[in-house]
Amino acid sequence: MDKPGKYYITTPIYYVNARPHIGHTYTTVACDTVARRQRMMRYDTWFLTGTDEHGQKIERAAVAAGCSPQEFADRVSGEFRQLWERMKLSYDDFIRTTEPRHIRGMQALFKRLMERGYIYKGSYSGQYCVFDELYVDVTEPGAPCPECGRPTETVKEENYFFKLSAMEGPLLKLYTENPDFIRPEARRNEVISFVRSGLRDLSVSRTTFSWGIPVPGDEKHVIYVWLDALANYITAIGYGSDDPKDKKKFERYWPADVHMIGKEIVRFHCVYWPAFLMAAELPLPKSIIAHGWLLFEESKMSKSRGNIVRSETILDTLGADTLRYFLLREIVFGGDGSFSFDALVQRFNADLANGLGNLSSRTLSMITRYFDGEIPYPSPGARDASDDAVAELAAKTIAEFHAQFEQFQFSRALETAWGLVAAVNKYIVEHEPWALAEKEDQDSRARLATILHTSAEALRIVTALVHPVIPESTARIWEQLGLGDISKLNLPGLAWGQLPLHTKLGKVEAVFPRADKGTIERMQQMEQERAGQAAAETTGESKPAALPTAAAPVAPVAPAAPTNNTITIDDFAKVELRVGQVKVAEKVKGADKLLRLEVDLGTETRQVVAGIAKAYDPEKLIGRKVVIVANLAPRKLRGLESQGMIVAASLGDDGVPVLAGFLEDVPVGARLK
Ligand SMILES: [Zn+2]
After folding, report:
1. Over 50: is that where the pLDDT of 601 sits?
2. How far is the CA of 90 from the centre of ligand 1 (A)?
3. Burial track 483-514 (b if 16+ CB lie within 10 A, e otherwise)
4. How many angstroms does the Cα of residue 135 sit away from the middle of ligand 1?
5. Of 131, 159, 374, 537, which has the most beta carbons under 10 Å away?
6. How far apart are the CA of 593 and the centre of ligand 1, in A?
7. Is the distance from CB of 572 to CB of 565 less than 8 angstroms?
8. For 44-66, how does the pLDDT look when each residue is reduced to its tens digit (9 = 90+)?
9. pTM
10. Cα 443 to ligand 1 centroid, rounded to whole Å
């Protein structure tokens, strides 16, 4: 067998305009699990995460929070590190884009791109979206951004441009020759069609604000925040440093084996990043894996729609392993998954408490009781076909688990492992070892030993396989099995029949206490308290981009009521505003202003007819989160029933609509109040 080499895996670096939420946890846990397993497979593994701290959005958020951009970045970046430390994530390095090592490396990369003729100076006048930090392809001043719908700003500036247009051919060649470069397939197809539609040169500097890395030799320009952010993957491992130690590290680990990302940043990673690297003549990452989104459901047990967005609540109640297991088991990697307290508690009870927890505690406590806490000898004369079936299934489980995990199919790999858990639990129930224990004869005693040995061996195998996913609880089971320190386990050599006879068990105790209805209530309570705290703090980053108070553009708008007419909070409470997500959007025949939308409100899907066709192309709206007046009486527009109204600002004399939206990720179904 070849000696395993190195393995370099990264999360995206998280933008410090928002605090860590469960979506960040999901990506980071997935990478942590892969990194842990690669280390167990004896790879020289390097796992990088970090924070992205420059750009106009951060500069503005700092102003709103009344502090300097650096202070603002320090605070939010600190929150990420605190959470990851609390979860005991195994990252090897945490890069911040405000660190000298990054600034030095970024400037070296910029210089290299200039020297090679891929960056040139030009001038630009056009519409700029502050939210996306992108120049966008619209012409009218103030027109909505085609990416996010927020109003754009007119910007005229001298800019440095990257010759992205020269990269169309090389990029398409890359995607064709390396089908695994972008996974899953659906993302790959999107990227290919985006590149085929033509690439224009990309502006890679700004002069309209100063919170960024200065362009070397022309310091009134700062480097475009996406170029700055993407470069972290090389600057963190020593790119641009003259120190021989750094040079060696860069040569050791680059190119990355996996950049794991969310699907919303595919274009930056799969188009811009390889283009920058090719232009700089640097090796390309081997693979970019895009996962789906975590959507939120309301808890069925709750009257209030408590949407969990923070990991801390789960850590405080069910622990880090439960959160890790849930995220990787419940969500088919690559697709979208949904999150609710109910689903979390159900998974915990079914798979962890009843499944693995039961297997562990009944096997180990019977060995303690009947064999004085020593793994018994499985007499060959006392074996039957059912014992062999468990051994065969275990061998098959090892092979399948490895294969699925290597394809990032975490959910299927865990399903495979739990197939063995269920089979052994069934085997125990069918053979009733407790009944055999009551008999005194030699045969019964030999049979009992064989059954308990078989069960303990299967438990050892499952525990070893799933250790990267639930590191804490498997370490405890391993100790109870009397096997000592699980980090010394030889995962590549894992096979049936390695459990040493007469191993003395450790102290046996339950690893997963059952959760009850009270657990859900406690979590909801904690979420509400946390939400209250967050609202009380004025960090400025959690304000919605547009407040849902503007008139809707759908129906002819009545003259505005006199502004001195105030309403009470109870009047306002009558209006049910909810976050929805557009699933379907299409033009309404014969009405050039109207779009027919199907909007997911979490609990149901509504048809809404909205007068926004002139400002929004239907295909750009799909997937977008919008604000819906959910309790408006239905009415008919052009023969179509509109079940609710979409909230938008109305700009200028023509009432150009701009949809209300949020700067932070908000769960579908959340109520605005
Ligand atoms: Zn935008």
Report:
1. yes
2. 34
3. beebeebebeebebeebeeebebbebeebbee
4. 9
5. 159
6. 22
7. no
8. 999 999 999 999 999 999 999 99
9. 0.78
10. 75
